[in-house]
Amino acid sequence: MASPTDGFTAQPIPAQAGIGLRSEHYREVIATRPAVGFFEIHSENFFGLGGAPHQYLENIRADYPLSFHGVGMSLGSVDPLSEQHSQRLKQLVDYYQPDLISEHLSWSSFNGQYFNDLLPVPYTPEALTHIVDRVQQIQDTLQRQILVENVSSYLQYTHSTIPEWEFVSQVAQQSGCGILLDVNNIYVNATNHDFDPRAFLGGVSAQLVKEIHLAGHSVNEFEDGSILIDTHDQLVCDEVWSLYRDAVRRLGPKPTLIEWDTNLPELAVLLDEANTAQTILEASHARVA
Amino acid sequence: MPGLRELQRAFSSSLRSEDASQTAAWVSANGLNGDRRIQIYRNNLVVTLTDALRSVYPVVERLVGDGFFRFAAHEFIHQYPSRHGNLHLFGHEFARFLSEFAAAKGHAYLPDVARLEWAQHEVYHAADHAPLEPQSLTVIGPDRYESLCFALHPARRLLHSSYPIMRIWEVNQAGFEGNQAVDLSAPGDRVLVLRIDREVKIHTLAPAEYQFLVTISNGKPLGQAVAAALEQDRDFDLTRCLVKHVQSSTLVDFSLA
Fold first, then answer.
1. Which of A11, A270, B187, B213 is the most exposed place for a label (fewest CB within 10 A)?
2. Residues in chain A closer than 8 A to B9 (CB atoms)
3. For B212-253, what is each residue's pLDDT tens digit?
4. Residue ranges of domains in chain B
């Protein structure tokens, strides 16, 4: 990675479908330049200072707008934010000029130990105030708006007092950040916690949603019941596509990302999924026009 | 009702131990009970960190097999917890852990294989650096050569093992065909892990050449590096060694002591 002064100029992400960029696909993406609206990376995969990851990303960034998606900021933790983590993210943002920067509405560390997972926060006024403050700290450091993503969860706290969609909306309204609406996570939580996923869609403002995520999930069966797990290891299911159509109808066309992390298939499979999303977006553009 | 700090303290302790009772008491038992729900997060933690180790240490995994690797990873995760949101920084103590791990005592070469794989991981992600222009050295008068301090490229690591780790590494690569037998009593290897273009490579070094580069990487001036190399080999060829490592961008900068 060269010095920030040689960085890229801002390039907006259109309301089109994009895919998550994974190292297994770098070469094919560079060789074939697929027709997608944008690529999204996991910011931490580029925290290294040089070498292959940056050479590939610079090449791809020259032709596509980027979105940076963080998995390690530990937004909801009571630990202080990691200065090292925020500063490295800032260097990358300054250099690559991603159009969107997102983090998860969850916590992943306590007392210096990281669990590298997206652990659920309780939806309480205390957690809301804490997270609003943290989002503002990150936005002050980056000098950019960030988006916060609703996560999948496998439990609910008995002391949560705010519906999840209202909590996410309040974080955005109070901190000035945007929302990255993960439609698969809405479906997973609605199933796991018995609520109507359309109530979630109805509870967020179209102006605050700047991006949508789509992914596949798995079902874990236990003798006392089953639960959906957000595994990002398969195709988007029919129910999530249907929820996505409703989301686009309600919120308007938004940049939409196909996420796939485990058992990564060939690039063509991701592009097919992106195509399906693109068709839904275009139908919506046509309605708007 | 727990505050955020109290909740996170109890939840993290539930992830580290088998006792989730305190956290489970704050979780709705809607269908699955609280213990089961926390068990999902405990499993996620082990799977995520084991996969992170697997991606850095494929040869160690191949040498010990999947079952033993998962057992070792499980122990390691609890003894050396992750300290960063960036997973690429997780696992650097794995070699040290393996050298102390009673169950791995029969495989004395394992820690060195782990060191080699961590070095490759670091080299893959390390910073880029422009090569040294050989002409830039012409401004240094011969009387000052002794006090020249060279700098190694950030994407270079030096390792010395008393085991033939190069051979162990080679026969455990996917697609290796041929005799997989390794003579563990064969001489140990001195290696330079480096990046050429985008690829991480391992080059074996002669003892004197290794000593020369190690001394330089410790910030010592050329005079001391040459003396150290000559102790290994009276016929150490300084010019050839310098040309080779400047041309291959291992030596990328210099200053005067």
1. B187
2. 110-111
3. 999 999 999 999 999 999 999 999 999 999 999 999 999 999
4. 1-107, 130-257
